[in-house]
Amino acid sequence: MPYLPEDKPWYHAITIDLILRVLSHTFLNPIFACLAPLTMRAQNFHYEDPAMQVCMAYAVTLNLFWIAKQFNTRLAWGTKRSFDWSEEVVVITGGSSGLGLLMSQIYDMRGVTVAVLDKVPPEGEGRGVAWYKCDVGNKEEVYKVAQRVKEECGDPTILINNAAVAYGGSILDVPDEQVEDTMRSNVLGHFWTIKAFLPAMLKNNKGTIVTVSSVASVIAPAKTTAYSASKAAVRQLHDALAAELRGTDIKTLLVLPGQMSTPLFKGVKTPSAFFAPVLEAVDVAREVVGLVDAGRSGEWAGPAYVGWINWYTILPGAIKRLARSLSGADGGMETFVGRSGKKDE
After folding, report:
1. Segment 115-138, tens digit of pLDDT
2. Can 132 be counted among the known catalytic residues?
């Protein structure tokens, strides 16, 4: 469900995502579309009747789109990998709070072994969650902790690179130390964890690597220079990694969320509650875990506008500028509070 602060009116819960979700389960559902001509036929409508022909064309079109989507999924993302949750070991970076914490809790409820890499202990305790104090931007720490994880938990089969930091301010206002911290945590952390855990996945020929990027990797709002650059970097890292792992049974998932209800971007104002609603972190956690469960490579983008954002990149410059101005995206960071130094997505 859309994120709705207590001080917001009820209609703020009505978003474009909610409308599209309702349509996908009704008028844009292939099964629903097939029922329409069958119902009309039961009422003695003839096939030559214009209304009947419209309904049949509607049903055929939706089902062809559905079939094309299945083919695309199979060809683009390959076959599914099998899971034995009693043997799976999940590593989540930045798993002590926010999105990472929620994902670790979901896996913990299933009885899956989870290793959390974070600088601070998780909020709450999980019977199957092991916390390892680690700054993922520090190569030596990551490699040492990775060895401990393998010895104490077993070879990781699922790696979720979720850790991130964010600092607000223009490029001249952000201290050099914060820029370096952003790149170490948000970019180099992905390199070090992948290099630490991928060899065992390749040896066992099974695994899943999840890259949590951001809509800011495509459209970078003002005063997010370091953060947006880091998220664009890990998106390209993901694409290159997916190409390198093609032909293996290692699956790669790219997650592109918009603004979430986590402390990382506390205070940021969404441009539009209707077109760009704030995501509940628990909903994103469910989506990510569901994609991992599906056993395929893939991408997830949410809310709906994030899935359309790539079209923005091919627009003429003048239209891009107008779109940014109308959206108000560049003013969102004016009220940024955040939680500096915390690895949280």
Report:
1. 999 999 987 766 779 999 999 999
2. no
Task: Supply the pTM of this predicted model.
Answer: 0.88
HSE (CB half, 13 Å, CA atoms) of 111? 4
Tell me the two tokens of residue 274: 């209707």
Nearest to 186 by CA among 235, 129, 243: 235
Long-range (24+ apart) CB contacts under 8 A made by 101-107 are: 102/281, 102/282, 102/285, 103/160, 103/162, 103/285, 103/288, 103/289, 104/129, 105/129, 106/285, 106/286, 106/289, 107/289
17 CB neighbour count, 10 Å cutoff: 19
**Highest-confidence range of 72-81, 261-270, 297-306, by mean pLDDT?**
297-306
Whole-angstrom distance, CA of residue 206 vs CA of residue 138: 27
In the chain, the domains with their CATH numbers are 10-77 (no CATH), 85-327 (3.40.50.720)
- In the chain, % helix, strand, coil (3-state, to 5) comes to 50, 10, 35
Dihedral (Cα; 31, 36, 41, 45), 10-degree rounding: -160
Is residue 80 pLDDT above 70, yes or no?
Answer: yes
Q: 168: burial class by Cβ within 10 Å (0-12, 13-18, 19+)? A: buried
List the alpha helices (DSSP H) in 78-116: 98-109
Phi-psi region of 54 (alpha: psi -120 to 50; beta: other; left: phi over 0): alpha
Whether 257 shows a pLDDT value over 50: the answer reads yes
Average pLDDT of the chain is 89
Contact assessment for residue 161 and residue 209, using Cβ atoms and an 8 Å cutoff: yes
Q: Out of 107, 132, 227, 305, which one is annotated catalytic?
A: 227
